[in-house]
Amino acid sequence: MSDTDRTPRIDDRDWSRLPLGERIHHLEVEGYVLLPDRLPPDHIAALKNQCTQFETTHVDYSVNQRGKSAIQFAFGPVTELIAYPSTINFLETLCGEVVLMSYDYTRSEPGHPGISLHCDGQPWGSKIFATDYTCPKLLRVLYYLDDLTPEVSPFRVVPRTHLSFHNQANPYLRYEKHPEETMVTCKAGSVLVFNNNVFHGNYENRTDEAREMLGVAYRPTWAGPFAEVEPWPEEKLAAVSPRVREIMSDRNE
Q1: Which residues sit opposite 193 in a β-bridge?
Q2: N or C: the chain end with fewer CB closer than 10 Å?
Q3: Checking phi first, is residue 202 left (phi over 0); if not, alpha (psi -120 to 50) or beta?
Q4: Does the predicted model carry a pTM greater than 0.90?
Q5: Residue 129 carries which DSSP code?
Q6: Can you say how many angstroms the Cα of residue 229 is from the centroid of all Cα atoms in its chain?
């Protein structure tokens, strides 16, 4: 069996034992970190209930991967999650004030084939990612509403790839597999934060249950996009809570 066919390493450590400094170090060096047990069961239930109301569409490569983008003005618990205190406290300790860049919902249904290894950071834009993802520094925050097991679309990542200067780390490339890729599992309510330039994806869903996730992208206030991004509509901003509005500041600043 070749290295590229081997079973990936599972990073199932007890993340709760990592102090703040080690969490920041792991994110900066390895490219990702898991913050376990952040959402209590009642909060998860409220989010899942609101997500059932979304009109979703499937992606071009699979009818079993569905989602809805631009959900920042869904209001209710979904919108309030933008300013979830424990997450924002961690991000602000990491890099200072942050700005919301995008927000989406995804559901990996039974039969989902997985997502190839890719980067969310594309510095000159692309047909896949809008100008929102051209920021020199971007943090993706994934709120898992279901358990991630090895069978239910767990996160996959190639640690430290955001640090490489080699042409194989070109953020416009994609890979079906990598000998150093790692699987990350966790309980529902956990939050995974990763660097936009680390190669990542997810594995297939081999069960009869769906896996739901809310994905939020933030950037430090200094790390604006390379071209103008459409501003938030003022009339909608006026309806969000003060704390959420604070984070939904000018995306072009």
Answers
A1: 33, 141
A2: N
A3: beta
A4: yes
A5: S
A6: 20
Cross-strand partners of 192: 34, 142
Tokens of 84: 């979830």
Ranges of residues in the chain with a pLDDT under 70 are 1-6
> From CA 251, how far away is CA 135, in angstroms rounded?
10
**Side chain identity at 34, as an amino acid letter?**
L
Distance (Å) of CA 77 to CA 10, 66, 90, 119, 173: 32, 20, 20, 28, 36
Interhelix angle for 85-95 vs 20-30, to 10°?
70
| Integer Cα distance of 142 and 24 in angstroms | 16
Eight-state DSSP code of residue 152: B
DSSP string for residues in 186-204: B-TT-EEEEETTS-EEE--
DSSP per residue over 100-152, as a string?
Answer: EEEEEEEEE-TT---EEEE-S--TT--SSS-GGGG-SS-EEEEEESS-B-TTB
Is-contact 200 194, C-beta < 8 A?
A: yes
